[in-house]
Design brief:
It contains 7 helices and 20 strands. It is an alpha+beta fold. α2 packs across α3 (about 75-80). β6 and β7 (about 120-125) form a beta hairpin. It is globular, with a radius of gyration of 19 Å. The strands form 6 sheets. It has a 9-stranded mixed sheet, covered by helices on one side. Strands 18-19-20 form a 3-stranded antiparallel sheet, with helices on one face. Strands 2-5 form a two-stranded antiparallel ribbon.
Length: about 300
């Protein structure tokens, strides 16, 4: 695997329990907009959210629509093949892929980032009820891949300065050794450092990069999303970074598959992966093979009902 150059930073800030508690209460209290991103779930039901159709307004691009509905660039373009992402056209119907199958991990806790779909999931519990909040992310580009693995949050940083790695300064000698906090800082307003020292989860001054592979290995959130995640996460929170281009889920007793085209692999490869996952979950006998193949062929990044 290619090693990431990553990011560096040195400022620390203690977590506020009061802030964390207040935010959790806000998230489940019906605050306008919050319900679109926070979902309750249980161990059996693993499909959350509902997709819908939006009509493009004059002058809008898919990039702007994606950000408005907290989606990444790749998500909205994969869900709308054939639609021009820059000039989709007034009143064009656009699918908002605001439904997801939860990544398949041994335990749903803390932060889980699925590199294959460029999306972050944060799991938490309030009064015994399990919730998940999800955000689109940007990740490492080819040659600077974001590493998979199990890590933890070791620093919380407000107004981070960017200590530019020498490898990045070699690419761009005009960069200073340190970029101070502010609108020109690529780390944005806040950052979470992981136990892998070169990797941060941070904001960005280039929101168009969310939902793309454009970073030096760090994980980027929209400027409006990083404060929300930052307030919820405490030191020591686990961070599982996985690569799952195929996910299998259940909702209301029906079987769903979600396939992403962001990873390398042929239709046959993904079909075999899906079959193995279905077998491991003892769901293969409940699936229509033709529906499964069509879902794999389209790879539109949305949960597709493949129940027989």
């Amino acid at each position: 695997m290619t090693r990431s150059k990553g990011c560096t930073n040195r400022k620390m800030l203690p977590v506020s329990l009061v802030m964390l508690t207040a935010l959790l209460l806000m998230l489940i209290s019906g605050v306008p907009g919050a319900e679109a991103r926070v979902y309750s779930y249980d161990g059996a039901e693993t499909v959350v959210g509902l997709s819908r159709v939006y009509r493009v307004k004059e002058g809008e691009s898919l990039i702007e629509i994606a950000r408005r509905f907290d989606l990444g660039y790749n998500e909205i373009t994969d869900a709308n093949p054939g639609v021009d992402p820059f000039v989709p056209g007034n009143d064009t119907p656009v699918t908002l892929p605001t439904s997801w199958i939860l990544p398949d991990t041994s335990s749903r806790r803390g932060i889980v980032i699925n590199l294959s779909e460029l999306r972050l999931y944060y799991y938490f519990t309030v009064k015994g009820v399990k919730y998940v909040r999800t955000f689109p992310v940007g990740i490492g580009r080819e040659g600077d891949l974001t590493p998979a693995g199990t890590f933890r949050v070791v620093e919380k940083i407000v107004k981070p300065a960017w200590y530019v790695p020498e490898s990045i300064r070699e690419e761009n000698p005009r960069l200073p050794k340190v970029v101070p906090a502010g609108p020109d800082n690529p780390l944005g307003s806040r950052a979470l450092r992981l136990s892998l020292p070169t990797i941060l989860i941070h904001g960005t001054n280039k929101p168009w990069g969310v939902g793309r592979r454009v970073s030096h290995g760090c994980i980027r959130l929209y400027p409006e999303d990083i404060p929300k995640l930052f307030a919820m996460v405490s030191w020591g929170t686990s961070v599982d970074i996985v690569r799952q281009p195929v996910k299998i889920g259940i909702r209301d007793g029906r079987v769903f598959v979600e396939v992403h085209k962001s990873d390398q692999g042929s239709h046959a490869d993904y079909f075999q992966v899906a079959v193995r996952l279905l077998q491991s979950k003892e769901l293969l006998n409940r699936v229509n093979t033709r529906k499964l193949y069509k879902a794999v062929e389209s790879r539109n990044g949305m949960p597709v009902d493949i129940t027989n």
